[in-house]
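Note to self: keep these together.
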Amino acid sequence: MVLRLVFVRHGLSSFNKEGIVQGRSNSSSLTKEGYIQASSAGEVLNEINFNSIYSSPLIRASETAKTIEKCLKKNYEINFDENLIEVNLERWEGLTIDEIKNKYPEDYRNWKIDPENLTLKNKDNQDYQPIKDLYIQAKKFTDNIFNEHKNEKDSNILIIAHNAILRCLILSLLKRPYKGFRKLKLDNASISIINIIQNKDLFKTQIECINQTSHLGENVTSQIGSSRIIIVRHGETNWNKEGRFQGQIDIPLNENGKKQAKQASTYLKAIKFNKAYSSSMIRPFETAKIILDDRDLKINKIDELVEISHGLWEGKLEKEIKDKWPKLLKDWHERPEIVNMPEGESIRDVSKRSIIAWESICEAQEDNDTTLLVAHDAVNKTLICHILGLDCSNIWMIKQGNGGITVIDIFNDSNKDSVISSLNITTHLGGILDPTAKGAL
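Structure:
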């Protein structure tokens, strides 16, 4: 069974516009722009046939849900679920950020640095932990969803809610990476998609995309850090299309791969890159050249960013590998961290060298740099795991489509972690769902 969860944050609210903290307050309503954003989300989601729609009952979310539902190709009953209401910030609700900073300076500092461990006082002067409580709420919701849809072969579920609860839902499905709450960005009316693959009582999570905003006329979400790195997976090769393990065999882009790179170039046309890096292999370097088009910018090749060495598996189809190395292939799909490819590498080898390259690139970032980095499936997955705070054993949780775009915001402040502002954007290649070839890894 595959359960596709499509998360939408509510459209711009009156409190969002005024910079007021809303939490569970129901005094905030959807603005005119928020309704337009909700309609735009509904138009692109019309390509998906949903089984169910769930929404927070708070006005800004429920109005977003109703607006989206009107845009869909068939009528749905919206399930309003209390487990989707926003984080409880009792004493802060209705205050501006500046008012909170002045009135609760230490609490606000902890909210920005380590919200998972933040303790606040409620209106009865009792201690509570808003984000830890929200994680419990998120698990209740996902447990109910899994139970309700467990007998369905495949389901598409639309979920409309709020910034903090949606982050907790996504992070719960990703095993709650350390300090993960501040490592994700979700804009108003953005779309994020998580696939849940169920085999008996086992659930596997895969992020298809996070914070997709192109339907809002914003190809790349606004920058929040001191600088930015845009990670792209190379375009398709013939071996990707055939499902062949290519690893460190230097296979060039096929015609579709060149087209994907050109589509990425058009999508990123307004971005003013001032630095560029690529794996030293042909397919990412060629992709980087096409993306940069006629810009006069040197592409720095980095050997540490080359694809994983599959050793004796390279050039082979998965069926051929299964015939000769059935247990090793099974382990690779289920526990990749324990596998060392025959005469090749382990995913930990790849992660170690990729992270060294990544940290070097980050250290070279200056204020307002916008850097292009083009690499490979396994490399990009280990980097995203690292940024999220996940062990590289979780690479299967990350999807990287050929030509897919991921946006990372970097901060000079050592107290602030890098933020994944968007992950695996592929709408420039056709539709809200990733249309790229599965390939082999």
